[in-house]
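Journal club side-thread
Mid-discussion, someone asked how the predicted structure for our own chain would compare to the paper's figures. Pasting it here so we can look after the session.
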Amino acid sequence: MLNTQSSERAQLSLFHGAASKPQAIPLPGEPAGSAWAGPVECFSELALCGSKENCLLLLAPVLRELSQQAGDRWLTLIDAPAWLTRSWLRNAGLKRDVILLLKTRSAATAVELACEALQRGRSHTVISWLQALDAHSRQMLTLMALQGQSQSLNIRLG
C-alpha cells in the first residue's frame, strides 16, 4: 500500500523546494536495521492516466518549471514517450537548450542510465518513464541523486 503522506512530501519538495524530514534509507546489501538517514526529497514519482493530450497538458507546466531551473545543469529525460517530441517541447515553452533527451533499449538499462546521470551531478533533475520500479531501483535512484545533488522524477503512464 502506498503511503500518501511521504509520497506527497517527496513530490512537493521536488516542485516547491519544501524541506522534508530525513528518513532512514538502508544501504544496498545492509540489514534492515542499519540505515543511513538522508533526505527523501531527491526522488519523486508522478502517475498520469488518460489520453496523450491530457498527459501533455499536465506535464507541460512541470517540465517548463524544471527547464527554467536548470542554470548550468541539464534537465535530463530518459526514455520519454515518443509523443513528447522536440516540437512539443518548443511549443510548450521549455528551454530546449538545457534539455538532454536519452533513449535506451530496456528498463534495466534505463535505471542504470538514470543512476549514472544522477550520480554525475551534471543534471539538476533526471526524469525517467519507468512503469514498474522495484524497491531496490527506487533506493538506487535515491542514493545516486543524493551523491550527485540531483533530483530524480519517475513518471508512470497508465
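Post-session note: The first strand starts at residue 23 and ends at 25.
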